[in-house]
Amino acid sequence: MHTASPAASFSGITTPLRRAEAWLDARGRGAWIVLMVLGFIIAGPLGLVMLAFMLITGKFKKSTYANTETAMFCRSRHQHAAFRSSGNSAFDSYKNETLKRLETEQEAFESFLQRLREAKDKQEFDRFMDERAHKAATPAQAE
């Protein structure tokens, strides 16, 4: 005796839903947002269901739209392209040296910023302790 699987019983439903999802994905994040807003207009719970679906499936994530022109400025995509050879050995060596120099400068700058933050925190803490000591000494003098 053959029993139908749950997936088979919903095959007529899931196929149009998958096609609708692919169609919306092809149009981008804006299409999903428009659909969600329409869901809120038609019936509030429908909009909430759409919002939950979009959050669970990651429709708001930027990685969904990695093929767009704006993704060329993304750090991970840029770093991947930076290690690709151009075919010109002189340029590749210059590029590698420049990238190493920039990485070193970035690390030095980040450590400078960290030292600056620590100095600022120490200054604020010292000021707080001075004010606290001053307040503690003031009532004793008044008595």
Order of helices and strands: HHHHHH
The backbone outline, from C-alpha atoms, is: flat
Quaternary form: single chain
**Ends apart, CA distance between termini:** 97 Å
Beta strands, count: 0
Helix content: over 70%
Unreliable segments (pLDDT under 50, ≥5 consecutive)? 1-10, 63-74
Major sheet summary line: none
What is the total number of structural domains?
2
Portion in strands? under 5%
Structural class by helix and strand composition: mainly alpha
**Average pLDDT figure:** 76
Rg on CA atoms, Å: 29 Å
Number of helices: 6
Please outline the helices and strands.
Blueprint: H1 6-9, H2 11-27, H3 29-42, H4 44-57, H5 75-82, H6 89-142
Helix pairs in contact: 3-4
Could you explain how this protein is built, in words?
By secondary structure, this protein is mainly alpha-helical. The protein is 78% helix and 0% strand. It folds into two domains: 1-66, no CATH class; 85-143. The chain is built from six helices and no strands. It is flat, with a radius of gyration of 29 Å.
TL;DR?
With 143 residues, this protein is mostly helical. The chain is 78% helix and 0% strand.
Features:
flat; disordered N terminus; mainly alpha; 6 helices; 2 domains; single chain; 143 residues
